[in-house]
Amino acid sequence: MKQHNKSIRCLFLSDTHLGFDYPLRPRISRRRRGDDFFNNFYRVLKFARDKRVDFVVHGGDLFFRSKAPQPVIDKTYQALYEFVNSGIKVFIVPGNHERSILPASLFIAVPNLFIFDRPKRILIEVRGVPVLLDGFPFIRNNIRKHFVSVVNGLKYEYNNSKIRLLCMHQAVEGAKVGPKNYTFRDGNDVIRMHDIPCAYHAVLAGHIHKRQILVKHAHKMNSLIPIIYPGSTERTSFAEKLEEKGFYLIEFYGNNQNCWKIGKINFIKVPTRPMVDIYLDGNINKQNIEDSILRSIRDLNPNSILRIKINDKIDSHTKNKLTGEYLRKILPESMNYQFVPGTWNNDKINQ
User: Fold this and answer.
1) Torsions phi, psi for 142 (to 5 deg)
2) CATH superfamily of 6-270
3) What distance in Å separates the CA atoms of residue 106 and residue 110, rounded to the nearest whole number?
4) Most buried residue among 24, 100, 192, 300 by CB atoms closer than 10 A?
């Protein structure tokens, strides 16, 4: 077997959604999920630092929403600032949740932190090997129509780069989402597979929360180009309750002729709390409701996130007892819960 003389490693994560369920002045005291999102973000950065990867790419939706509270912005950028000061470069694609623009801060005006705030190409050198990263922020209006012109605008002048990557936050034809594997095929928000240029070693894409690797067949070059979705680093909804979460460690190998190709693509899992559906049937009443709920969670992980479904036959007196205050009294403090949307008005859905 042919031996590879050198390797370059890229860590690729996406859709961290920092700020999710992270209120600064909560009205009630209870466990929030916001720390789960930050903790997994910190885990990924620690892995990258401990393993001394060569560079990190974030595929977009760093934040949960465009107008993130300033403390959330500062907390996020402080972590990135400390990380890039360790000497590892980070590249970030602004996503749709940021409305294609990351919040400004002095923390990000530092060496080793690069943001694709517009379509641009960035050439770096990793131990003497030129690596090219092309990227652009999320395009909301008709990416299907504009993708080719955006990428062609980068002019394909590769400056003798040995590794070439395209970084973006978009849906590509064939990507799947949800428990039923809905597949993106047509539509103005979907990039055609055949429009992806064959000159890249890989496409690093965010936006799709289910991790997956699509493949473009570059027949003229007799090669396969992976379109890599690492998925989100936390479960943002019950549609993702069975999905493993994590990031990819991607290795590129070079031979004696300094020709490079993509090699190992390893998925690294991060811990996630279990999401469990609880069904309250029509036999419960005001007298046995507490026992029924406690029996339904008896064997669950105490850190579970619950989704409560209520049978339509439950009488209104029993149903009205199921308030957030009541559930907080009987459920472990370590659990989160929510009702199936539509059960209550919006102020009672997520607790």
Assistant:
1) 60, 60
2) Metallo-dependent phosphatases (3.60.21.10)
3) 8
4) 100
